[in-house]
Design brief:
alpha+beta, Beta-Lactamase, five-stranded antiparallel beta sheet, 27 helices, 23 strands, about 45% helix, flat, disordered N terminus, HD/PDEase_dom
Length: about 1000
């Protein structure tokens, strides 16, 4: 049955032959594919490089012509150099000589000329014995240059007269044509108009030249001195000829276009020039697909493969900078297949060569794999016996193949070693399991003492040690025993003066010994020793170890046990190799089986020490984070208190009072608060942080609102402005009295009226100043008198828009200034006193705020502020102060708080809620308020009532404060059970003794408030 099952599987030699065949076929296909890709890429790159060069040569040729011609025009346009003075008088022979020299020097230049506003012109045409040009101009055969002059003749009534002179190649006159009238006017030609309209060198659009009867362009520039233009003509037929020459031996064509994509010149072989394309035709709309494809390259100087009419063509484009504002484009194209055909032939040859090699190698591969399969048969059978656990046989098999023979020898050695290694593996797995378990146990310990005890217990279990000790380095630099597996309840004393090294205290002392902890602490290296043998780990301490073990002194030993046979000490390191302590094990055996001692025990103990070091470091980091958080909270609270000069201790006193109340509530074992308690230190920390942050939103509250001591106070007390207006009215009364005396009024009567008016003003200002002080109630009759006083007027003669800041001016943008002098009320609520509120959404679902929001952000109106019924705050001011709780909640709920600190926003943001649901900012009722939130409300109110650092009210006595709290209790603004606990626990008195002034400490009968 086994034979049949094995026969169903593929044989090794067949598998090897098949794999080799597949590899060869895959490699052949890969080579063919890569060859095709690389050859095609090479063909495309070759074609693009070649025609990029063709386009660049044509572009460079045209660029050279344009640059040389442009330089000639620029040179001739400088009037002092060509014989034209400032009055426009010309030295015609000198001008003609300069023009002729320029045309002779530049063979591609068709014509160079100068035209003037008077329609006179000097022109030199390069005919160069070209029959077509000779016939067009009417020049004799052999003529190379024609000199054309247009002058106004006085003899013919100032009519322009045109004359010609014909020269041979050496400049010798061959003939001439007498002057005849002409209607050719240079001043109306495109080149003239464009040059006179613009500055610098200009390139005209293509046009039909009158002398050459061909399409071309002109480079022109106005004379620097005088009224005229220097211009040069370039005909497109010259570029056609050069393009034709550059395409010799290549298929395709060369095109010249302007920036608008219009065809200026071209050469294309017949296969690519049908249907024909005329000059100035836009290539984007051309019916010739080969020409139209260049439109896709507009604005690019590049090369690209484009498919046109089923054929792939390479297009290369190069730019020609005619003038600073004008560009021309040269495009060369050719079919790609003429480059690909030779490469495809090479590809076919390579493919046939690969197929031939494949047919030759496959039979050889099959024969070789069959031979190798027979050699492996014996190894397979031997492996099957090992698989069954049969390790019999003392001699290894042999093979003719050297590598297989070595495998047989290695297999035999492996067979002998597997049993030993399997036992070692079992021990290693046990140690690994122990390490994993110790890691779990260590991570669950929350104190350093618990971690230390777990560490020594795990160390004993890990290596089967007789006992273990953990010595930790403390802040004084000494090592002290913190855990012992044999004695978990350690005495308070510790091993003093750990560094006991020979010679430490002056003269050498032969009796001074090195203990293991000192050696490890100094070297940061493990210390291992076995009695009567050389150390298994040579760390340079063998002599000291032998001396220490042989003369063990119980008074100085790190363990109360007898001298051990084996001792292992490893450092416990944290951070960057910083020593935290030393783990000492006595008589480690490596486990219950006795295996795993020595080096293996060292590795396991080092891993355990590393785990302990990580846990110690994490505990230290957690403590450091808590300390940092505590310092940060106090820093923030201090900054909030420091922001106001009048509430410097509020953020420090409220947490203290809240803590005292929470401790009293947690200690209660009966009554309504019996079920409340903080069971963990983390819950206390969460509540503590919440109390410190209860007013963190005050960082957004302006000081002039939070510390508003009078009703007219903003950044300063505006009563001074009001007093100055009364001063003005007083001066007005005195002036009126003097005017009456001057007009002859009775002096006694005038003085009497003046005195009455002054007395009235004094009384009115005293009343206004009294209203400015925030009291308990603003009676209606006082408001009525305030409005009567405000109805008085005074005259302002100075512009109130001067000396304002940018923000003040921006606020007044919508209010038109009044013409001076302005009659204003003595006290007024002006439109500009209202600061609009920016958009805000207090009903956002995330925060669930439910506060009545005043329409204005601030209202600085004088009557509006003076009419405040109680205290100094307007509704806008009151909301701005209450808004600090909103900001507190928003700030804290945006923090990524861990799960054990999630209630911080609740503790910090609910101290202004009431049991009746009338508080703010969420209008929570008693069912929604926790005991800590109720404690915070009582603590915040009591501190505010008794604080003696508020500018808008005096500090209340102890009895007054408790009476007000009792009223809040009756109105269910605070929790009655918490208030009763506040009294019965004596917290109120303890707080008063610590934080209130002696004069506030009056007698209180708390019995009247209880129940």
């Amino acid at each position: 049955m086994t034979h049949l099952f094995q026969g169903a599987r593929i044989r090794l030699h067949l598998l090897m032959a098949l794999l080799m065949a597949l590899c060869l076929i895959a490699m052949t296909a890969l080579v063919a594919g890569l060859t095709q890709v690389r050859l095609r890429t090479s063909a495309d790159e070759t074609a693009q490089d070649l025609f990029r060069q063709v386009a660049q040569r044509n572009a460079q040729k045209l660029q050279d012509v344009l640059t040389t011609t442009g330089n000639a025009v620029q040179f001739l346009a400088a009037m002092p150099l060509i014989g034209v003075d400032g009055a426009g008088r010309m030295d015609r022979p000198k001008l003609m000589a300069l023009l002729l020299a320029a045309v002779q020097a530049q063979t591609q230049l068709y014509s160079l000329y100068i035209g003037f506003d008077s329609d006179e012109m000097l022109q030199v045409i390069g005919l160069r014995n070209q029959p077509q040009l000779l016939a067009t101009v009417g020049a004799p055969a052999g003529c190379h240059f024609a000199l054309r002059t247009i002058e106004r003749s006085a003899a013919h009534g100032g009519q322009p007269m045109e004359s010609w002179i014909f020269l041979d190649a050496r400049g010798v006159r061959m003939g001439e044509r007498a002057a005849v009238p002409t209607d050719y006017a240079p001043s109306r030609r495109p080149w003239f108009l464009q040059a006179r309209k613009s500055t610098g060198l200009q390139l005209t659009p293509p046009y039909a030249m009158s002398s050459a009867k061909e399409q071309g362009m002109s480079l022109a520039r106005a004379l620097s001195v005088g009224d005229g233009v220097v211009a040069a003509d370039l005909v497109f037929s010259e570029f056609d000829q050069f393009a034709h020459a550059s395409m010799q031996g290549h298929e395709g064509g060369v095109l010249l276009t302007n920036g608008e994509g219009e065809l200026l010149a071209r050469f294309a072989q017949p296969a690519f020039s049908q249907p024909p394309v005329e000059r100035m035709e836009k290539l984007a709309r051309s019916a010739n697909g080969f020409f139209a494809a260049t439109a896709t390259l507009v604005g690019e100087e590049t090369s690209r493969i484009i498919t046109v009419q089923g054929r792939e063509l390479v297009y290369a484009r190069s730019a020609v900078h005619a003038t600073p504002d004008s560009w021309l484009w040269v495009t060369a194209f050719s079919p790609v297949d003429r480059f690909v055909a030779p490469l495809r032939a090479v590809q076919r040859e390579l493919l046939w060569l690969a197929v031939g090699g494949l047919l030759l190698i496959l039979p050889l591969a099959y024969a070789l794999s069959h031979w190798l399969g027979r050699s492996l048969g014996g190894l397979v059978r031997q492996s099957q016996r090992i698989q069954r656990g049969d390790f019999s046989g003392d001699e290894a098999q042999h093979s003719a193949i050297r590598e297989f023979d070595e495998v047989c020898q290695a297999q035999h050695t492996m067979k002998l070693a597997i049993r030993e290694h399997s036992l070692a593996l079992d021990e290693a797995m046990r140690q690994l399991s122990c390490l994993v378990d110790s890691g779990k146990q260590l991570s669950r310990r929350r104190t350093a003492r618990e971690v230390a005890q777990q560490c020594v217990d795990s160390a004993c279990a890990l290596v089967g040690a007789h006992s273990a000790q953990l010595w930790r380095r403390e802040s004084d630099g000494l090592l002290r025993l913190v855990a012992d597996s044999g004695y978990p309840d350690l005495p308070a004393t510790a091993w003093d003066d750990a560094p006991r090294i020979a010679g430490d205290n002056g003269a050498p002392d032969d009796k001074a010994l090195v203990d293991p902890c000192t050696a490890v602490a100094r070297s940061r290296l493990p210390w291992f020793y076995t009695r009567g043998q050389l150390p298994e780990i040579d760390l340079g301490h063998q002599a000291e170890a032998a001396q220490w073990l042989q003369a063990q002194d119980p008074a100085r030993a790190p363990t109360p046990h007898a001298a051990p046979d084996t001792l292992l000490a490893v450092p416990v390191l944290v951070g960057h190799e910083k020593l935290d302590g030393v783990l000492v094990l006595l008589d480690p055996r490596g486990g219950p089986s006795g295996r795993g001692g020595g080096q293996d025990a060292l590795h396991g103990v080092q891993s355990l020490a590393a785990q302990a070091g990580i846990v110690f470091e994490n505990l230290a980091l957690e403590q450091a984070q808590e300390d940092f958080m505590e310092a940060l909270l106090k820093l923030l609270a201090g900054a909030i208190d420091a922001k106001s000069a009048y509430t410097g201790g509020h953020c420090a006193r409220v947490p203290e009072l809240a803590r005292m109340l929470a401790e009293a509530a947690s200690a209660t074992r009966s009554g309504p608060l019996a079920d409340f308690h903080f069971s963990t230190a983390q819950q206390w920390r969460e509540f503590h942080i919440g109390t410190w942050l209860h007013d963190c939103g005050k960082v957004t509250t302006p000081e002039h609102v939070m510390d508003k001591a009078t009703k007219l106070e903003t950044v300063y007390n505006r009563i001074h402005e009001v007093r100055m207006r009364f001063e003005v009215l007083l001066r007005d009364a005195q002036i009126a009295c003097l005017e009456e005396l001057q007009d002859g009024e009775d002096a006694a009567l005038a003085y009497s009226r003046c005195a009455a008016r002054v007395a009235e003003l004094q009384a009115d200002f005293a009343f206004v100043a009294e209203c400015n002080i925030g009291g308990e109630v603003m009676a209606p009759e006082r408001v009525q008198r305030l409005e009567q006083i405000a109805a008085q007027f005074w005259w302002r003669h100075f512009d109130d828009r001067l000396g304002l800041s940018h923000g003040e001016r921006e606020h007044l943008t919508g209010f038109a200034p009044l013409p001076l002098p302005v009659r204003e009320q003595l006290l007024a609520d002006k439109p500009e006193h209202v600061v609009p509120r920016p958009p805000m959404d207090l009903q956002e679902h995330r925060y669930r705020f439910a506060m009545d929001v005043p329409e204005a952000l601030y209202h600085y109106g004088e009557l509006h502020n003076l009419r405040v019924q109680r205290g100094t705050l307007t509704p806008e001011d009151r909301f701005k102060i209450n808004e600090h709780v909103i900001q507190t909640i928003v700030m804290l709920e945006q923090l990524p708080l861990p799960e054990d600190l999630k209630r911080i926003p609740e503790y910090a943001g609910t101290h202004h809620e009431t049991l009746t649901g009338t508080g703010y900012p969420r209008r929570l009722d008693g069912s929604q308020l926790s005991v800590p939130a109720r404690i915070m409300a009582v603590a915040d109110i009591f501190e505010a009532l008794t604080a003696g650092d508020r500018p808008y009210k005096p500090a209340k006595t102890l009895s007054e404060s408790l009476a007000l709290l009792n009223r809040f209790k009756r109105d269910r603004h605070i929790d009655g059970d918490v208030f009763d606990l506040f009294l019965t626990s004596g917290v109120y008195l303890e707080y008063a003794r610590r934080f209130m002034k002696p004069e506030q400490m009056d007698a209180v009968d708390i019995a009247q408030y209880l129940g």
